[in-house]
Amino acid sequence: MTNILVKADNLIKKYGSLTAVNNISFEIVSGSLLAMLGPNGAGKTTTIEMLEGCLKPDGGKVAILDFDPFNANRQQIQQIGAVLQESQDEPFIKVKELLLQRARYYENPMRIDELLDLMELTDKSNSLIKNLSGGQRRKLEVALAILGNPRVIFLDEPTVGFDPAARRSFWDTIRSLKNDNRAIVLTTHYMDEAEYLADDIIVLSKGQIVASGSPEALKQKFTNSVQISFSKQNIIDVSALNYKFEIIDQRYSINTNYPTKVLNELTQLAVNSGVEIIGLEVKRPSLEDVFLELSD
Question: Contact 149/108 with Cβ under 8 angstroms?
Answer without folding.
Answer: yes
